[in-house]
Design brief:
The chain is of the alpha/beta class and 378 residues long. The protein is built from 12 helices and 17 strands. A hairpin with an 8-residue loop joins strand 13 and strand 14. The chain is globular, with a radius of gyration of 22 Å. Bound molecules: flavin-adenine dinucleotide and uridine-5'-diphosphate (UDP). The site of uridine-5'-diphosphate (UDP) has 13 residues, from helix 6. Flavin-adenine dinucleotide binds next to helix 1, helix 8 and helix 12.
Length: 378
């Protein structure tokens, strides 16, 4: 009999397994249907010996010192500030849009004050900013929106930006200075030996047992446990009884090429051309030296593993109904990007998991009672 069954060995499940095992001394069975730990942050060495991210580029950035302090128990860090270029009108230009983006795109020599006037003359007045289109058009105007955002967003999400919530493009700021970093956070570092090594250290505890290639749906009637933490898709947990929540997927094409460096920065976005959205070159992220270099091309699709909740009002409304169902199961904790249907970054998921642990500490006595209903989800 395990004290806890935790479904999913990504950030949400692994942080909770670590906390429960080390702080409560309880036993944890951590399962994942994949053949590895780490969830979407999993990295591994490819045949060329280059550390790659199997599920696309994962760059760690946060403003929360407490989250850095927690993760620093399991990893040291390598400073890395992420920079992205966008292939627009035959040039490679900084994105987020900044002073250099505009000066190079239009052959101008504006200073930051003049750029503010430039944006002011182009932005559209939108009474209430609701959509992913509104956010950009009301900041930099329609032409820049069309060059940098419309095509990329249509590819990435399979719908027009006017059909998506503003939170999607609000992730990308606009700058009037020359700062070309993708993120503005106070802490921008990569785990020095990779994410998987960090997860291994997190989960290396005698109270934690891990079973991979194990799907909760197949074993839920057979594994004895007292409490459940679930980090998979919430609609699947409830057997899709209210309908399917849309999740956007990606097909990753991983290749190694015979040159030392393929592109000037870790990520190049393709908002105007190509079927893929972006190319990642990992050596920029890790600082690894190798005569060859490994890349990932991302092709968005509706078919495949669920990677992104799709932020739009009708999906958020359906999720609210699943959230109400979740609340009817006080014996189950729903945590993470899929179980709470939120477009969270890694640090936000770690924060959510640590907050969940704090709630468990307040409300669940150590070694609590057996849950006889364990076998019947929903
Ligand atoms: P996941 O990592 O998805 O883990 C959930 C796990 O549950 C999976 O391993 C899955 O196999 C398992 N599971 C699901 N259902 C079952 C079941 N029925 N039985 C058993 N196991 C199950 N964040 C950043 O901060 N920076 C970035 O640069 C960044 N880049 C990203 C790029 C891409 C392409 C993607 C898709 C995401 C990116 N993210 C990034 C977000 C980051 O991946 C997530 O915030 C984080 O990994 C979510 O952790 P999680 O534990 O909630 O979910
Ligand atoms: N986006 C865009 N063009 C870009 C970069 C981003 O249109 O060059 C939009 C797109 O809709 C994307 C969203 O902004 O999905 C958020 O970008 P981010 O880089 O945060 O996406 P993620 O890394 O989460 O896939």
């Amino acid at each position: 009999m395990f004290d806890w069954l935790i479904v999913g060995a990504g950030f949400a499940g692994s942080v909770l397994a670590e906390r429960i095992a080390s702080q409560r001394g309880e036993s944890v069975l951590l399962i994942d249907r994949r053949n590895h730990i780490g969830g979407n942050a999993y990295d591994c060495y490819d045949e060329a010996g280059i550390l790659i991210h199997r599920y696309g580029p994962h760059i760690f950035h946060t403003n929360a010192r407490s989250i850095v302090d927690y993760l620093s128990h399991f990893s040291t860090w390598r400073p890395y500030e992420h920079r992205v270029l966008a292939a627009v009108d035959g040039m490679l230009l900084p994105i987020p849009i900044n002073l250099d983006t505009i000066n190079r795109l239009y052959g101008l020599d504006l200073d930051p004050v003049e750029l503010e006037d430039f944006f002011a003359s182009r932005r559209e007045t939108i009474e209430e900013v609701h959509t992913a289109e509104d956010v950009v058009v009301s900041t930099v105007g329609r032409e820049l929106y069309e060059k940098f955002f419309r095509g990329y967003t249509r590819k990435q999400w399979g719908v027009d930006p006017s059909q998506l919530s503003k939170s999607v493009t609000a992730r990308v700021p606009t700058r009037t200075n020359r700062d070309d970093r993708y993120f503005g956070d106070s802490f921008q570092h990569m785990p020095a030996n990779g994410y998987t090594r960090m997860f291994e250290r997190m989960l290396n505890h005698p109270n934690i047992k891990i079973m991979l290639q194990t799907d909760y749906r197949e074993v839920r009637d057979r594994i004895p446990f007292r409490k459940l933490i679930y980090t998979g898709p919430v609609d699947e947990f409830f057997d899709w009884r209210l309908g399917r929540l849309p999740y956007r997927s990606l097909r990753f094409e991983h290749v190694t090429v015979d040159c030392e460096q393929f592109q000037p920065v870790a990520v190049v976005n393709y908002p105007q051309t190509e079927d893929f959205t972006r190319i990642t070159e990992y050596k920029h992220l890790t600082g690894q030296k190798n005569a060859r270099t490994s890349l990932t091309y991302e092709y968005p699709t509706d078919i495949g593993d669920p990677y992104y909740p799709v932020p739009r009002p009708e999906n958020e409304a359906l999720y609210k109904q699943y959230e109400a169902l979740s609340a009817s199961r006080p014996d189950v904790w729903f945590v993470g990007r899929l179980a709470t249907y939120r477009y969270y970054n890694m640090d936000q998921v770690v924060g959510q998991a640590l907050a969940t642990f704090a709630r468990i500490q307040k409300t669940v006595p150590i070694g609590g009672a057996l849950q006889p209903a364990m076998a019947v989800p929903g």
